[in-house]
TrEMBL record:
Signal peptide stretch: 1-20
Protein name from the UniProt record: Uncharacterized protein
InterPro entries: Slr4 (IPR045689)
Keywords: Signal
Cited Pfam families: Slr4
Length: 466
């Protein structure tokens, strides 16, 4: 009997010793909230989940316990005046009384350590404080990724007790309820075929598509927004798809979406807007043959960088998180999201500035240091006249490798459109496309200005493919 008693005492002592420090992390984070930033935007205060602190040391009357909150402003009026840490394992419960609550720091003093009649180990280890219904200012909650609580304790003489690696926990986290997940989505990725005069893609098709997956995380957030629909603004260039130059706007049936019809007014030269899409994957397809068989045969396909700006319309969770006073809202999900590009299968070099005029002698040398021959074509913009590059014209067919002076060909192309540098000065930007590998081509350009007294030179530089 004596040996059994010693063994029992050893086991209960080991049970107390195995909890060497407080654990506020496990229970608090199990009860934590994940607040929807959009849904909670008009709430006055957020009521947090329970703060749960399991004691890991022996406490006595007069000990001091402190809860420090960070990340949001605590409403001190919701702090309880007394708490009891109930011990469901050992004999001793711990009761504390409030000393102060200010500046996100709540301090209690142990007022009683009481036997709860469990008839087990006389210990405060495993006694558990639970603080419910603490409220925090919503604006400060939403301004930070998380709201945390840290537990500290000391004896009446200032000696730290019950410190450990689990003395802090996350009470509230915040998350955008609406997002875009493109990890498995397709981008616009067509390659424009310069051998086909940029009238189709290298796969002999005129169709390309992009997928954009719109996400509503209502299942993982608290105080959710509802009735959400998304608007997608696709940024690019769409004027080449216009099938009716006599009608205002862009007239085309070549842009479709899996989310429904696109209103004609929402198709502009630089943007296409898809309205009212639901969460899920939206597919946007550009098919110039749909309803306009001649569209690509009449217009050169431009190189395009596509981006998307996405907004969401929703109804928030009200002022109390339960729908009271719910209001409509709008949020930007992403801005300028890269959704692909169309590129050429050749060299494209842009000369951003070339002066032309009676007293100006420009020069432009095209160097192909590779082994392939290919056509050289030109598009241009005249300052003060054009707002986009003109249609492509061929300067040289099947140009062999080497160095080539292109000035005469460029001047002839400009003259054909009425721009005569011998008659009047003007400034022009050039886009020179060569149907050869991009790395093989460079353009060297500049100009010489002549007056009666001297000659000045302008070096524009050596330019490689984009």
């Amino acid at each position: 009997m004596f040996k059994k008693s010693l063994i029992a005492l050893a086991l209960t002592t080991a049970s107390a010793a195995s909890f060497a420090a407080v654990d506020i992390e496990t229970g608090t984070e199990a009860a934590a909230l994940n607040v929807s930033i959009e849904g909670a935007v008009n709430m006055t205060e957020v009521t947090a989940g329970d703060v749960v602190a399991v004691l890991g040391a022996e406490y006595a009357v007069g000990d001091i316990i402190t809860f420090t909150f960070a990340g949001a402003t605590l409403d001190v009026a919701t702090v309880p005046g007394t708490l009891t840490a109930v011990n469901g394992t050992n004999d001793l419960d711990v009761t504390v009384g409030l000393l102060s609550a200010a500046d996100n720091v709540v301090t209690y003093r142990v007022t009683e350590v009481k036997d709860n009649g469990n008839a087990t180990l006389q210990s405060t280890v495993l006694a558990t404080f639970t603080i419910s219904n603490l409220e925090f200012d919503t604006a400060t909650v939403l301004a930070n990724a998380k709201t945390t609580v840290t537990y500290a304790a000391e004896t009446s003489t200032g000696v730290t007790i019950d410190a450990g690696t689990k003395s802090s926990g996350d009470m509230i986290t915040t998350q955008k309820q609406f997002s875009v997940d493109r990890s498995a989505d397709s981008d616009f990725d067509a390659i424009i075929d310069v051998e086909e005069q940029r009238l189709q893609f290298t796969d002999n098709d005129v169709v390309d598509l992009v997928e954009i997956t719109l996400v509503d995380d209502a299942g993982t957030t608290d105080f959710n927004a509802t009735a959400a629909t998304f608007d997608i603004v696709l940024n690019g260039s769409f004027s080449y798809l216009d099938t009716d130059a006599n009608t205002a706007g862009i007239q085309t049936t070549g842009i479709t979406t899996s989310s429904g019809a696109i209103a004609a007014a929402d198709i502009l030269a630089d943007t296409v807007t898809i309205k009212g899409a639901a969460a899920g994957t939206v597919t946007i397809t550009i098919d110039a043959d749909a309803g306009a068989p001649a569209a690509f045969s009449e217009a050169v396909i431009p190189t395009i960088d596509y981006t998307a700006t996405i907004t969401v319309d929703y109804t928030d969770s009200g002022t109390d998180g339960a729908g009271t006073g719910a209001a409509a809202g709008e949020a930007t999900v992403v801005t300028g999201e890269d959704v692909g590009e169309w590129v050429l299968n050749g060299s494209v070099i842009e000369v951003p500035y070339m002066p032309m005029g009676p007293n100006t002698q420009p020069f432009l040398r095209h160097t192909n240091d590779g082994s392939q021959s290919g056509d050289i074509t030109l598009r241009y913009m005249v300052e003060g006249v054009d707002t986009e590059y003109t249609d492509s014209v061929t300067l040289v067919e099947d140009a062999a490798p080497g160095v080539r002076n292109l000035l005469n060909e460029i001047e002839a192309a400009l003259l054909a459109d009425g721009y005569d540098r011998s008659a009047a000065g003007f400034k022009v930007a050039l886009e020179i496309t060569s149907n050869v590998p991009a790395d093989d081509v460079k353009v060297t350009t500049g100009a010489k200005f002549i007056n009666q007294e001297n000659t000045d030179r302008l070096s524009i530089g050596v330019i490689s493919s984009n």
